[in-house]
Amino acid sequence: MILVLKPGAPREQVDELIGRIKTMGLDVHISVGVDTTIIGLVGDTTKLDRLVFSSYDIVQNVLKVTEPFKKANRMFHPDDTIIEIGGRKIGEGHFVIIAGPCSVESEEQIVGIARELKNIGATFLRGGAYKPRTSPYSFQGLGLEGLELLKIARAETGLPIVSEIMSTDVLDRFVEDVDIIQVGARNMQNFVLLRELGRIRKPILLKRGLSATLEEWLMSAEYILSEGNDKVILCERGIRTFETYTRNTLDLSAVPAIKKLSHLPVIVDPSHGTGKSWMVGTMSKAALVAGADGVIIEVHNNPKCALSDGDQSITPSDYAAIFPKIKQLAEIEWKRLEV
Question: Which of 3, 23, 33, 140 falls between 20 and 30 A from 245, CA-CA?
């Protein structure tokens, strides 16, 4: 349920209303806009009578929220959420490029790629320290050593780092070392992990699950938001369909759909979304036009020898060819490219 307050509602009366709501065992989410203040009621509101709140002079309208996600809902938060990391903004017209290798393999590899990306233009450096793999015999990442190498690359270039967490065991290290903590598709419904991430204040990049509906994806974001962490970035990375030509089916329709349903920023992963390096540039441009707030691209210095996801990784020279096209398109679409 949402209460839309009249413009200029006195603070004392607002506080009185909030106090009344809390006595009903409900939580409150307040969104203050330029002209309108909205109070969202979080909890079981099924038995509440709308007339209870309509009787308050300061309440202009009472609306029912039919979707199960509340704090992620645009009705609760009409304005787009903007997340700022190291002076770089994600959301509401700010377009970011997160780039780097699927896996951190060595100091020479990650620092070399980071330097090239910095020179060409990138917003964040991505790199997997831990790698969830379908096969237990595939390369699983360097672990905490990989985090240390990412920190060296950040010190060398100034690029904030993005890396995927696998479990709560290393949460303290990720909070200390990583600028944006990524939750992979396989962990989208790891609710224990999501709750713990909701209790920290680091930005969380939440990837869509392999076969997740939009509602299931937003409900996973709700787990993080409900614990108090409002810094959630959604990532469309392709879903599993009957088509086998591409690794996944990149669902770009999810971008405008999520923008309608939620205030959270949405980025797109064209690398995992297609599994083919030659599609990455085209789908990156398509993502920008679809309204995405950024892309996350896998870049490797030698894709043929990559320890993971070489087929979908582009080289730094490929990235250098793509970047100016994205920059030009961003200007046409009235988006600010954050670098």
Answer: 140
